[in-house]
């Protein structure tokens, strides 16, 4: 009797109240779809390395391609980290004070001076590197930010003749009054040329050179150079673009720097 009952139980169908489990393939398929959906949502929340609107704005303002702008953004972060670390270690070497390093948002004056020298071979006196820094620092907050760096490089590396003339005139106009005065020319040339201050009168040769420059470039003979004077002279003789000190990278260095942008990871 017990044997018969067992056989009936084994051969009977599952009762109505018991749970019906779906096939294993169906479960796995649903789990896969759910996982893909979660991944898609997570990916949609991840911000790109360089925001598209940031690239678009700089594309309109500069002479760089969008791909170059993305490369410059990556390079900016790397260079700021490198020169920031070097700047901190240099200060620490000269001081016994323990430094607390705060991540910077860009180049300070010391870091930017190192950048100009190492990357572009611009080794001019401090008076000129400070002027170049001020040209880049459009916000005038003592830091060259990412967008300011790219906008400034557009002039240095891809600027038209008119843009480069305006740039160099701005650098040489030390007091920002719209003129390069006789005194400013003397200061600029003296810093570039006087290497042996122990000479009897090291400034005499500089004064003579200033007079020569003014006779050549001062079109209206008012003993100072207006933008029109400077622009006219440079367009006649391109070598006068950097007459009072280097403030632009050479063509070879510019091309090498631009070629390196595409390889930045």
UniProtKB/TrEMBL annotation:
It holds the Pfam family EF-hand_7. Keywords: Calcium, Metal-binding, Repeat. Residues 124-159, 160-195 form the EF-hand domain. PROSITE patterns: EF_HAND_1 (PS00018), EF_HAND_2 (PS50222). Residues 8-39 are annotated as: Disordered. One of its GO terms (molecular function) is calcium ion binding. Residues 26-37 have a biased composition (Polar residues). The keyword Protein transport does not apply. The keyword Calcium applies. SUPFAM superfamilies: EF-hand. It comes from the Eukaryota. This is EF-hand domain-containing protein.
């Amino acid at each position: 009797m017990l044997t018969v009952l067992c056989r009936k139980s084994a051969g009977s169908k599952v009762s109505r109240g018991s749970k019906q489990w779906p096939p294993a393939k169906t479960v796995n398929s649903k789990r896969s779809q759910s996982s893909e959906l979660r991944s898609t949502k997570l990916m949609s929340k991840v911000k790109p390395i360089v925001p598209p609107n940031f690239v678009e704005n700089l594309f309109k303002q500069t002479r760089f391609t969008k791909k170059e702008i993305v490369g410059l953004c990556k390079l900016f972060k790397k260079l700021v980290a490198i020169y920031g670390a070097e700047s901190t270690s240099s200060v620490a070497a000269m001081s016994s004070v323990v430094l607390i390093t705060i991540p910077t948002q860009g180049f300070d004056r010391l870091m930017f001076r190192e950048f100009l020298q190492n990357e572009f071979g611009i080794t001019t006196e401090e008076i000129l590197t400070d002027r170049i820094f001020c040209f880049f620092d459009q916000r005038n907050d003592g830091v060259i930010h990412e967008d300011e760096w790219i906008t400034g490089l557009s002039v240095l590396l891809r600027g038209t003749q008119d843009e480069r003339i305006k740039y160099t005139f701005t650098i040489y106009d030390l007091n920002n009054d719209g003129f390069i005065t006789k005194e400013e020319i003397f200061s600029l040339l003296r810093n570039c040329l006087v290497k042996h201050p122990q000479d009897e009168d090291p400034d005499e040769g500089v004064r003579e050179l200033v007079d020569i420059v003014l006779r050549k470039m001062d079109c209206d003979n008012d003993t100072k150079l207006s933008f029109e004077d400077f622009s006219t002279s440079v367009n006649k003789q391109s070598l006068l673009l950097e007459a009072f000190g280097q403030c632009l990278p050479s063509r070879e260095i510019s091309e090498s720097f631009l070629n390196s942008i595409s390889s930045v990871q």
